[in-house]
Amino acid sequence: MRKLGLKCQSRLKRKQPVKVKKATSAGYIYENLLKRDFSTTRLNEKWVADVTEIAVDDEKLFVSAIMDVHNNGIVGYQISQTHDVQLVEDSLLYALEIRKIDDSLILHTDQGMPYRSTRWKTLMDTFSITPSMSRKANALDNYFSILT
């Protein structure tokens, strides 16, 4: 084939289109103020919050909990059948009924939908709480707070 100058014609591989995530309105995204520094000197300095799903008798329940990093104590929680803004709002309001806070409280969360909402931002502003968020797709920040 070489002597005759013949070449095989292979099929051209189709290029896969590059997947580009479209910029959408993601709500409020806050800076990661903790950066895995979970050291504290007093109560109500740094709180972390998260929601987890629990299956009970073929039913899904969602538990929203807020933990004080200083002593790893749960300061507020709520249980609901829906994972929504109301659930995380209620857990924060419950925590605020129990604990007196000052202006230097940092509340660290993941980038879940309820924590990016306008209602959550209003709560942060109303109670002078400084919000902080983990980087996208990095839930380890809240996990490491328990270990320290």
Automatic annotation (TrEMBL):
According to the entry, every stretch annotated as the Integrase catalytic domain falls at: 38-148
Q: Superkingdom, according to UniProt? A: Bacteria
* Name of a matching Pfam family: rve
Q: Which SUPFAM superfamilies match?
A: Ribonuclease H-like
PROSITE patterns linked to this entry:
INTEGRASE
Annotated coiled-coil positions are none
Would you kindly state one Gene Ontology biological process term found in this protein's UniProt entry?
Answer: DNA integration
Q: What molecular functions are annotated in GO for this chain? A: nucleic acid binding
Instruction: Quote the PANTHER family the UniProt record gives.
Output: TRANSPOSASE INSF FOR INSERTION SEQUENCE IS3B-RELATED (PTHR46889), TRANSPOSASE INSO FOR INSERTION SEQUENCE ELEMENT IS911B-RELATED (PTHR46889:SF4)
According to UniProt, the name of this protein is DDE-type integrase/transposase/recombinase
Give the species: Parageobacillus thermoglucosidasius (Geobacillus thermoglucosidasius)
